[in-house]
């Protein structure tokens, strides 16, 4: 990996976050090639500098181009950034991996845990590409795509087990509006990012049911306690959960109408079914899948995880959002720090 900006970065794929993060990378001085699944998306980006499907009205910088050819996107890229839905990463990456340069650093922007395997995205990347921990990084924080694309100020965490690699990546994505901090706690950042989506669903349900700020603040706080319980059991640094990739992202997601997870939860709270919500949007709400994987992970490690458990039940249609609220409150009482 080059230590100075202006190298080539390949970004997969041209959804909301892949496109918004391409703006950050381009503003930071990288040449960005964005891979799109559909030729019309790539053509529009190249011809009009706009991703009409995911970020309409946002002009992309001239140093972002697009292609549907994965080999072309990856050729000469010393940083590969992955922003697909978490549940399709393994299949997608299996196709792309043979074209990734031998020493390229692979960065996950995804916030989910794979169903079935219960693997985090960094684990999937390792399994599919064979890359070691010094070549796998995570970028995670309170980064709603639309706000980032409008260049509203924000901060984030760049985590890699190798601190020097995290520092080099930090330079590659430090733009005038985007301030990245380094960390070596990949696991803590990934679990913070995946769990906040599930808590965002629960908060959305409360909003959809018509409850106010006491309810949402209680869910956010207990959701963070649940996240920290599991993350620390797995070896995360508790301070990561108090930082941008934990509390910061939780606050952004749970308070913003821009959050797809919070909106998904709000619709569940208003009585829509999961199938009806899926039919109404193409955008990914990772928590609707990761509630099951995080619930299973917590069970595997003997952690109490009522938020993940009840959100999973509501998403599966075996409980209503009101049932969830009633069940959460009816549990045995206990000490706050247990
Ligand atoms: N949008 C945000 O604000 C934001 C911010 C930070 C992190 N993230 C994370 O980034 C990841 C991607 O989210 P997004 O917001 O870009 O989602 P999105 O729904 O906006 O876009 C998803 C992208 O993946 C592509 N895609 C869908 N199914 C696919 C498949 N089977 N194979 C390959 N590609 C497929 C779509 O074409 C699209 O380009 C998620 O893990 C999300 O949690 C999103
Ligand atoms: O729209 P959401 O709920 O996927 O959240 C987007 C980002 O993860 C916020 O940091």
Automatic annotation (TrEMBL):
GO terms for biological process: carbohydrate metabolic process; glycerol-3-phosphate biosynthetic process; glycerol-3-phosphate catabolic process; glycerophospholipid metabolic process; phospholipid biosynthetic process. Catalyzes the reduction of the glycolytic intermediate dihydroxyacetone phosphate (DHAP) to sn-glycerol 3-phosphate (G3P), the key precursor for phospholipid synthesis. The keyword GTP-binding does not apply. GO terms for cellular component: cytosol. Its EC number is 1.1.1.94. NADPH binds at residues 16-17, 37-38, 54, 111, 145, 260, 284, 286. Sn-glycerol 3-phosphate binds at residues 111, 141, 196, 249, 259-261. It is an enzyme of class 1 (oxidoreductase). The keyword Transit peptide does not apply. This is Glycerol-3-phosphate dehydrogenase [NAD(P)+]. Residues 185-325 form the Glycerol-3-phosphate dehydrogenase NAD-dependent C-terminal domain. It comes from Nocardioides dokdonensis FR1436. Gene3D superfamilies: N-(1-d-carboxylethyl)-l-norvaline Dehydrogenase, domain 2, NAD(P)-binding Rossmann-like Domain. InterPro entries: 6-PGluconate_DH-like_C_sf, 6PGD_dom2, G3P_DH_NAD-dep, G3P_DH_NAD-dep_C, G3P_DH_NAD-dep_N, NAD(P)-bd_dom_sf. Belongs to the NAD-dependent glycerol-3-phosphate dehydrogenase family. Substrate binds at residues 111, 260-261. Pathway: Membrane lipid metabolism; glycerophospholipid metabolism. Residues 8-165 form the Glycerol-3-phosphate dehydrogenase NAD-dependent N-terminal domain. The active site is at 196 (proton acceptor). It comes from the Bacteria. NAD(+) binds at residues 145, 260. HAMAP family: NAD_Glyc3P_dehydrog (MF_00394). It is found in: Cytoplasm. It catalyses: sn-glycerol 3-phosphate + NAD(+) = dihydroxyacetone phosphate + NADH + H(+); sn-glycerol 3-phosphate + NADP(+) = dihydroxyacetone phosphate + NADPH + H(+).
